[in-house]
Amino acid sequence: MPRRLRGLVAVALLSGLAGPAHSQELTPPRLIERTDAAYPPQALEAGREASVLLELRVDAEGAVTEATVVEPAGHGFDESAREAARRFRFEPARQDGEPIAARIRFRYEFRLPSSGAEETDAGASETEAGAASSGEAADADAGSDEAGADDAGADDGDGPDAAGDLDELAAAEASALDAAAEAESSGDAGGLGVSAEVERERGEELRRSAEAVHVVDTRAQAARARDLGDVLAREQGVGLRRAGGIGSRFRFSLNGLQGSQIRFFLDGVPLEMAGFPAGIANVPVGLVERVELYRGVVPLRLGADALGGVVNLVTSDDYYRTGASASYQTGSWGTYRATLRGRWHDEGSGAYARVRAFLDHTDNDYLVDVEVPDERGRLMPATVRRFHDAYTAWGTSLEAGFVRRPWARRLSLRLFATEFDKELQHNVVMTVPYGDVVYGQAIVGGTLRYDQPELLGENTSVNVVTSLSRQQIDFRDTGEWVYDWFGERIRERRVPGEIQSDPSDRSLWQWSFFGRAYARWAPEEEHELRLSVTPRYDTRTGDERLDGGPDVRDPLTAQRDLFRLVSGLSYRLRIFDERLENVFFLKHYLMLADTEEQLPGGDYRERDQEHNRFGLGDGFRFRFADWIWAKVSYELATRLPDPDEIFGNGVLIVANLELQPETSHNVNVALNVDWRDRDLGRWTAELNLFARVTDQQIVLLGNDLFFTYQNVFSARTLGAELALGWTSPGEYVSVNVNGTYQDQRNTSSEGTFGAFEGDRIPNRPWLFANASLTLRWPSALTEDDALSLSWDTRYVHEFFRGWESQGLREFKQTVDSQLVFGLALTYRLPEPVPVSTTFEVQNLTNAAVFDFFGVQRPGRSFFLKLTAEL
Fold it and tell me: CB–CB of 365/387 below 8 Å?
């Protein structure tokens, strides 16, 4: 079939990541309310005409959420067309009768009035491009002439308008569609055709799938003075605790499980191998478009051995646009943060390139409450300013490749480099100040991707990704002075080193290789098989520069090799017009560790490990109606230890070469509601019940100086999370609330923690909630601007630091309840360049906030952020 005629056929081409190729009924958006574009005065005086091609994002309610110029005309035409298109209203696109978000290409024609006439010629408009679904655009272009006819309109004295009567426009579009359909049936397109590029956004596809996933759209948060940790901490089921300000150590939890039990990815590549060694909490939110939170049951395509779930950060699904964006933030505690993104695409060759960069710095010199000795040596309360807690990070990446080629849906290479440096202010419970301890990490590497449908035959797709990185960890504790909380030197140390009795100046180097081969075969549209093979290899060495003597072997040079392989096979069934979807999968886990252990006499011996484990799982979803669906999922999951858990991290965590894998039975039961009404707005609700039964759980234990990971106990976690949201028609008001309760108990009957059987797991929040309210005023100061006021709050209930049955309750150490408020005022001006400015106050009431026992977080903070898009 000729390419021009294919553009008139509604065919859903599902990618290998989204599902099998099969036909669905796709209906493009239909324009029902149009705003006239003003003819640029300078262009009118010069007698210029133009044609501007726009790419519009139309949501499931028919509103235009984004308008981008694809083919510019200059001379003010681009701004005028984009300004008008933002106020269009559409009958939303539909897939099998269900409203979905869509992208369309819309051409605005600016035509001068006839000589001597006082009416305006209508700007002809048309939608262009091809049909697509599940986030993948398909080639389905239709050749097109003007899809409208000239319309007459009165001149208001300010020059002619480029738009005509809506009814005539609708009639013209209908006529064009009819003509195109007739041309297709007759085998002659006649140069006339209208088609639309229809897609349900990938995040929405995931949310409605059988996978146990919660999707967070971060694009709306890009204007806020937040990092990704702040955004995720406000989601149900998520706990993120920080030991201080920006750049401090943190602990992430999802449905009761935490730390390395949760795997973190960037576009499907392990986060630490993708250029963010400082962790997910410190990722700039402006570099991420959405976050996928997989709760306990992990899809095969990620190839992960997670125990509690996976967090996948998605930078962008759009490789077909040219543009740029930048942001700069400044504020309290010597903070400044900047991001830059740029992308370019050539339609003819399919070549594209993307660049990203960020820079973060903060002094973290906020006020804290401590105890200091008076002249008699008695400890007295005092408020001091932190003096040795600065954090600096930078990173950049360059990605280039080809998309939509006959030989590859996507072929790309991404190169990156990232580094951070952090000063260490005090010990774990903030009782001893440090003045010279510093640590940091740097990573360089690259990722190669290849995606291609039908590589192995009809109804197949193949996805291959490989990544290689080199990470360096530095730690220096050579301080020669004792410091007080005011940053003053008290006395000189007899032996350098603030953390322990011996100084340390060490570096660790780790080479890591990650790969994943993923294949999909759909013999019928209802049935699909998927196969995934994911190897990872890490090797580590190091150098302690202050180690004694040339004849003494440096312990950091001991053999540290770790190989892990996760393989799996899944079968997906979709029946009853896709109302029922079920995914069953099997997994195999292999771990090989080749290590050396230093004996007390200084000799070394081999301590190798090998583990083989199997797992299985199932995800079920039934859609009762377009606006309500239920999910049930289960997985027998295994998590293999990380290099940092076995080998230590070179800073405060020491090695444990006997560490074993941990396992868990994970269950989720969820009900989702997404109901939209033109008069009542959008109502959303999500209820998720979860259970986790874990064995050989890996826990970080230690004292106030050093830690080690150990297999110490089994546990049972039961919990529930609920999220409710309402957005008014026109998005003038938006309200969201969520809460999480989790009961996590020790079920070990013997061993180290046998005496605490039945106790709640200590030092973990078990009840927390969030709420937010956003008020939006469109056309606040000008016709096209928008002003919004956002208020949010977070509550975390009190919890014990130690076992609840140990000691008298009134004398137990607790992390107190916290209630924190934030306020943000954002002003957005779309023209001539979309710019937003946000003034934000965090911790509005200046509450004393502690996520960890004794470690105080920043008080009231003020930030200003500027964001621009091109």
Answer: yes
Least confident of 466-470, 582-586, 642-646: 642-646
In sequence order, what DSSP letters do the residues of 353-392 get, joined into one string?
EEEEEEEEEE----EEEEEEE-TTS-EEEEEEE--S--EE
Q: Which residues pair with 447 in a beta bridge?
A: 414, 467
pLDDT in tens, 340-373: 999 998 888 889 999 999 999 999 999 999 999 8
CA dist 605 and 603 (Å) reads 7
C-alpha distances in Å from residue 848, one per residue of 427, 436, 600, 770: 19, 26, 46, 18
The C-alpha angle 304, 307, 311, rounded to 5 degrees, equals: 60
Predicted pLDDT at 253: 93
- pTM to 2 decimal places: 0.79
Q: What is the pLDDT of residue 442?
A: 95
| Euclidean distance between CA atoms 224 and 609, whole angstroms | 47
SS3 605: strand
In this structure, what token pair is assigned to residue 32? 């029902």
Instruction: Give CA–CA dist 114/152, Å, rounded.
Output: 10
- Cβ-contact 132, 197 below 8 angstroms: yes
Q: Residue 8 pLDDT > 50, yes or no?
A: no
Q: What is the DSSP string of 658-719?
A: T---EEEEEEEEEEEEEEEETTTEEEEEEEEEEEEEEEEEEEEEE-SS-EEEEEEEEEEEEE
Q: Does residue 730 or residue 434 have the better pLDDT?
A: 434
Coil/strand/helix, residue 543: strand
Tell me the three state secondary structure of residue 185.
helix
State CA 735 to chain mean position distance.
22
Mean of per-residue pLDDT scores for the chain: 82
Q: In 3-state terms, what secondary structure has residue 19?
A: coil
Nearest to 415 by CA among 345, 355, 326: 355
Q: Identify whether 600 is preceded by a cis peptide bond (ω within 30 of 0).
A: no
In the prediction, which pLDDT does 25 show?
A: 53
Q: What is the per-residue pLDDT across 172-189, written as a single tens digit (0 to 9) for each?
A: 333 333 333 333 333 332
From the number of C-beta atoms within 10 Å of its C-beta (0-12, 13-18, 19+), residue 576 rates as exposed
**In 72-165, at which residue ranges do the beta strands (DSSP E only) sit?**
89-91, 93-95, 98-100, 102-110, 125-128, 132-133, 136-137
What is residue 367's three-state secondary structure? strand
